[in-house]
Amino acid sequence: MRAIAKNGGVIQVNFNRGFLDLTEDKREEPFLEKHKAEIDSIVKSGKTAMLPKE
Q1: Which residues, 6 or more positions from 42, have their beta carbon under 8 angstroms from its beta carbon?
Q2: Separation between Cα atoms, residue 17 and residue 42, nearest integer Å
Q3: Which of 33, 29, 39, 34 is nearest to 47 (CA)?
Q4: How many whole angstroms separate alpha carbon 24 and alpha carbon 12?
Q5: pLDDT interval class at 9 (50, 70, 90)
Q6: CB contact at 8 A, 51 and 42
Q7: pLDDT, tens only, 11-53
């Protein structure tokens, strides 16, 4: 890691749930339904950068 940094390189870490857990797709839809009111509020506010892509 230090050699990569020394040479101007970058290490990226992926915390995307779908990348880390292949069963995430099965749980995502129920989660989004459960939190629909909150998601709709975020969309209405225009602060959608952290919402899942459709």
Answers
A1: 48, 51
A2: 20
A3: 39
A4: 21
A5: very high
A6: yes
A7: 988 887 777 888 877 888 898 899 999 989 988 998 877 676 6
Model pLDDT, residue 10: 92
Amino acid of residue 54: E
**Is the pLDDT assigned to residue 54 strictly greater than 60?**
no
Which of helix, strand or coil describes residue 38?
Answer: helix
List, as one string, the DSSP characters of 1-29.
-HHHHHTT--------HHHH-TTHHHHHH
Q: Which two tokens stand for residue 20?
A: 């880390």
Joined together, the tokens standing for residue 19 give 């990348």
